[in-house]
């Protein structure tokens, strides 16, 4: 708005801001709507399975114990899980809440935030979605500011603050420093788009992705750039032709479309995966309970 007032183009600037906000909110709604279904299904499934483990399985266990049946390994495993749920039921909501609070606490510190942000944009499946979403938002923000006549250093600082990710903030900071020294945007963007190694990020990969396998995956992914060559090349062309804002808009449109396609694909993939998970869990419980139950009925009939 300040740039629009100074340049006598306030109406045009407000229209661009409105378009930007509409696109940003549309993208947020798509991502949130895609996450509602799996979150609700997983929450309900965990609640039902917990109820079965705490109320239903102990009743069968008492019946089997009364008739002194020798239980198969599958049933022994189910009874063990049930005993754990009965004795430590408070850990079922407690563990995810503790993990969430721990992450919030770690992110309060500078290196903790950097490590978590590096982890979250490279995590399998959802990391690519988060990374493309941030790239679409930041390029559109920068394009809007450049088109509005905001000086490039100020525009980069605003874009950095709106990225919401420490890895992207570091990249835009390095680009600003390079521009102060007389360089263009494209070259420092390419050079500073590699996250590199961070011990906190390695810790998250080890804890959440499977120990040594997670560390191995992290070592393979930490050198992957967060900005593709096509973005660098389009920014370079935009600088040479004086149409940087147009090229940034094209990049943002491309990544908006990729985020939409990726979100739709993940949503469609989630449904069969959740069905397989729930079917496997229910099938395991039914088989584990009915094998000794059949033996009990056969014994009584004899």
Features:
302 residues; 13 helices; mainly alpha
Rg from Cα: 27 Å
Which runs of at least 5 residues are low in confidence (pLDDT < 50)?
none
* Helical/strand content category: mainly alpha
Instruction: Give the helices and strands as they follow along the chain.
Output: HHHHHHHHHHHHH
**Residues in helix, %:** over 70%
Distance from N terminus to C terminus (CA atoms, Å) equals 88 Å
Write down how many β-strands occur, each being a DSSP E stretch of 2 or more residues. Answer: 0
Write down the overall geometry: elongated
Largest sheet: none
- Report the mean per-residue pLDDT as an integer: 84
Number of helices: 13
Strand content: under 5%
Polypeptide structure, described:
Helix 5 crosses helix 6, helix 7 packs antiparallel against helix 8 and helix 12 packs antiparallel against helix 13. The relative contact order is 0.12. Helix content is 84%, strand content 0%. The protein is built from 13 helices and no strands. By secondary structure, the chain is mainly alpha-helical. The mean pLDDT is 84. It is elongated and about 95 Å long. The longest helix is centred in the C-terminal third of the chain and has 58 residues.
Summarize the structure.
The chain has 302 residues and is mainly α. The protein contains 13 helices and no strands. It has helices spanning 2-7, 10-66, 73-87, 91-106, 110-122, 126-147, 152-163, 166-180, 186-191, 199-208, 212-221, 229-241, 244-301.
